C-alpha cells in the first residue's frame, strides 16, 4: 500500500449546488461555516460520492440520489458534465462524468496524475466510456509502477463520519459482527467491535478513549464488551456500558443521544491508525457546551495526526479556532462558493470581538442573506 496522503487542493464543477469550485486549498484543520442551505452538506456529500465511486458503486449511489439530473448543477438541461480534480501529495485524481439516458453516469475521462522527482509531471489515462471507476482495478493490478496504488490508497482512506442517527434502530445500538473491526464505519455501526479490537490489541489507545469520554460523561465508567456466539457459530457483540461503582451492564439506549454521539466522535478522533483525512458534518449536534469545548481540543489534536474537515453551525465551536482555520461557505447567484480566510485581515476586529461575534455580525461572511 502506498503512502496515505491528505488533500492539498480540490476542484469540483457541476456537482449539486457546487457549480464551479476551483483549487480550494485544504489545510490540516478546516472548519466550514455558513448559513443553512448554502451547500456545506453538498460538500460533505461529494466525499461520500467519491468513496462510493472508487469502491465501484457510483451507479447505486447515483440512483439513491434520484438520478444524474439531481446530481448535476441545475439539472441536465443546464449542466452536461460533472468534473473534479483532487490533488494530494505528489498525486492527483481527475474524472469527468456525463449523464446517460437511463439516469446514471458514464466516465468521459478518468486519469491519474504524478509529479515525481525523477519522472516529472505525468498523466495516466484510465479510459472513457465505462460506468464504474477503474482505479480500484488498476490498484489491484499494480498498474503503472504504483501510481494507482498511491492514488487508491489515499482516496480510499478518506472517511466521512455521520453520527446523527441515534434512534432506537441505529446501527451503533444493535448487535454487530465481531469480526467487523478493521476500521470505524462512517455511522459507527461497528463501534462495539472496533472498541473490542482496540481493547485487545491496543489497550493504551482504548484507555485514552475511555478517559476522554469520562471528562464529558462523569458517571460513565467503562464499556462492557462481551462477545456472544450464535447458533451459527458467528460471534456478535453489542455496545454495553456500566456506571461508576456498579457492575450492572446498561444498554446504549440508556445513554442520551448527545452522549452516544460524543462517544462516537472521541473514538473517531483518537483512533490509533487514523485515515489521512476525515470529514465530519455538524459534530456539535446535541452536545453540552463543555463537551463542545472538549471536542474542539480533540479536533485540534487530531489535526496533527490527520487532516480534519468539519462543517459546523456552532458559534461556541467556532470560537475555539483561529480565523485561518475557517472556510466561509455562501451562495452567490444560486451557486455555492467557498472563501478561505486570513486572520491578518481581521487583526483590528479581533481586539474587540471574538471569532463567533465577527461571524454573527457578518464581518466574516457566512450569514443568511436576504
Précis, in short:
The protein has helices spanning 40-54, 58-65, 68-71, 135-140, 147-157, 191-201, 203-216, 257-270, 289-302, 315-318, 347-350, 355-360, and strands at 9-15, 18-25, 29-33, 82-88, 91-99, 105-116, 120-125, 159-161, 176-177, 220-224, 228-229, 235-237, 240-243, 277-281, 307-312, 326-332, 335-340.
Molecular structure report:
The N and C termini lie far apart (50 Å). The chain contains 12 helices and 17 strands. Helix 1 (40-54) packs antiparallel against helix 2 (58-65), helix 6 packs across helix 7 and helix 8 runs parallel beside helix 9. The chain folds into 2 domains: 9-158 and 279-360, Rossmann fold (3-Layer(aba) Sandwich); 171-258, no CATH class. The model has no long low-confidence stretch (mean pLDDT 93). The strands form 4 sheets. Strands 2-1-4-5-6-7 form a 6-stranded antiparallel β-sheet. The protein is of the alpha+beta class and 370 residues long. The chain is globular, with a radius of gyration of 22 Å.
Q: C-alpha Rg, in Å?
A: 22 Å
Q: Largest beta sheet: what is the strand line-up?
A: 2-1-4-5-6-7
Mean pLDDT: 93
Describe the main β-sheet briefly. 6 strands, antiparallel
By DSSP (H or I, 4+ residues per run), the number of helices equals 12
CATH class of the largest domain: Alpha Beta
Domain module count: 2
Q: Tell me the helix content.
A: 25-40%
Secondary-structure element string: EEEHHHEEEEHHEEHHEEEEHEHEHEEHH
Which ranges are low-confidence, i.e. pLDDT below 50, for 5 or more consecutive residues?
none
Number of strands: 17
* CATH architectural label of the largest domain: 3-Layer(aba) Sandwich
Protein structure class? alpha+beta
Strand content: 25-35%
